[in-house]
Structure formats: structure tokens, C-alpha cells
Write a structure and sequence with these properties.
Blueprint lengths: L8 E6 L5 H11 L5 E3 L7 E9 L6 H5 L3 E9 L1 E2 L11 E2 L7 H10 L2 E5 L8 E2 L2 E2 H5 L15 E11 L5 E8 L5 H11 L4 E11 L2 E2 L4 E2 H8 L8
């Protein structure tokens, strides 16, 4: 009888335009992992730390998902998109000339602490048995969702903003499980009576795990691809 697979915890720097499932699938076949899953989804247009667990370590996925997360990125004031990022095209434009750095910092402070947040319609949240993004890609808006999109309580420990490249705003966020950074971006724009979209997002930490410890996908596969079995 084969010994049980005790499993591994793998840290990958997710590449741009890959889904989290794409990474899981790639490692499953390239490295022959029989059981593998990820601990916390990253949007395709985000990069950064993705935790994957194999074998018996998959039982720990929920505990990793529950840990505090850190993100860095760039949002842009003055325009909006339905997805609040660059997955969809611009649908509105606003004058940003009256917005001061102090106003941006004040809005970020108002979004710090324990807050109620409504997930974006382009998200994997299930409503009436269907993912919201599936409804959104059929042209539905938040107003079309029966019963509306329910808010969730999240904790934003840090929301730092840097306005030197205004209207591009660089930020660092430390937040709890379940936080949507795109919702923070959307809500920041709304507090400024303006619009905003997410241009760049990178996850830099999950709990004690940091992006500096992660391998690129190519590097991990190169170092962990099983040797080809000799023909019998």
C-alpha cells in the first residue's frame, strides 16, 4: 500500500491574466499532484501571492483563507468600468480637477476599520445559485439582481494612499478575509463624488506568508517536475 500523501504548502507568484484555477490545473498536470487546491482566489488581472495545498495539506485551506491579507496597487480616479477594473471598458468619465490629496486621504480613512461592503457584480459570490459574474456577463446590473447583492462585514486595518501621481493613486491595503479591493476602489470614488477603477493589484502577504517567499510558476515547475519513468 502506498504511504499517505502528507502534502505540501506551495507559494506561487500568480502571473497576470491567469485565473487561480489555471494555476491549480497547470501544477496538477505538470507536477502530477493527485490532490491540489488554492487558498484564496486572485482575479485574473491581479498578480501576487497564491497559496496552494496538496495531499493532506488541503485540509488546511480554510485556515489559510481566513488569514489577514495585504495588497498593493494603483487605482485611477475620473473613470469607471462595470467590473471596476480593466476587464471591461469604460462606461463613465468624471472631472477630477476639484479633488485634493486631503480629500483622497479622508475618504480612505472613512473606509478603514470594520465596514459593511457590497461585493462587485463581477465577482464569484453566489446569488440564487448563480455566480454574480455570470449574471454580469449577460448584461445584468446590480439593480437587476433579485433581492439585491447582500453586504458583508469586513475589516480594513490599513488603507494607505499616495497621491503624487494623481489621478493615479498608489495604495497599500491590509484587510480581513472576504474583502473585495475593487469594492474599496468603487466606494472611494463614490465618497469623492467621482468615479474610480482598479488599474493594478498585487497580493503581497497572506498571514505570515510573503510574496518574497513565492516561486514563479515556471521556476516551481522546473524544480518539481517528476522525472519521466523509464519504460519497462
Amino acid at each position: 500500500m502506498l504511504p499517505p500523501d502528507e502534502g505540501r504548502v506551495i507559494l506561487i507568484d500568480k502571473p497576470l491574466n491567469w485565473t487561480s484555477f489555471d494555476v491549480v490545473n497547470k501544477l496538477r498536470y505538470a507536477c502530477k499532484f493527485k490532490k491540489i487546491g488554492h487558498a484564496g482566489t486572485l482575479d485574473p488581472l491581479a498578480t501576487g501571492l497564491l497559496i496552494l495545498c496538496t495531499g493532506r495539506k488541503t485540509k488546511q485551506i480554510d485556515s489559510y483563507q481566513a488569514q489577514e491579507k495585504e495588497y498593493t496597487g494603483t487605482l485611477v480616479l475620473g473613470k469607471t468600468t462595470p467590473s471596476v477594473d480593466l476587464e471591461t471598458g469604460f462606461d463613465a468619465e468624471y472631472d477630477v480637477s476639484g479633488i485634493t490629496p486631503e480629500a483622497v486621504e479622508s475618504a480612505a480613512r472613512r473606509l478603514t476599520g470594520t465596514i459593511d461592503q457590497i461585493p462587485p457584480i463581477y465577482s464569484a459570490v453566489r446569488v440564487n445559485g448563480q455566480r454574480l459574474y455570470e449574471k454580469a456577463r449577460k448584461g445584468k446590473t446590480a439593480d437587476d439582481i433579485e433581492g439585491g447583492i447582500k453586504s458583508r462585514t469586513v475589516t480594513i486595518s490599513v488603507f494607505e494612499v499616495e497621491t503624487a501621481r494623481f489621478p493615479e493613486i498608489d495604495f497599500r491595503i491590509v484587510c480581513s478575509k472576504g474583502t473585495y479591493v475593487r469594492s474599496l476602489v468603487r466606494d472611494l470614488g463614490a465618497l469623492l463624488q467621482n468615479g474610480a477603477y482598479l488599474k493594478v493589484l498585487r497580493r503581497t502577504r497572506i498571514g505570515a506568508f510573503r510574496i518574497e517567499e513565492a516561486d514563479s510558476l515556471e521556476e516551481f515547475i522546473r524544480n518539481n517536475r517528476p522525472a519521466e519513468q523509464s519504460p519497462t
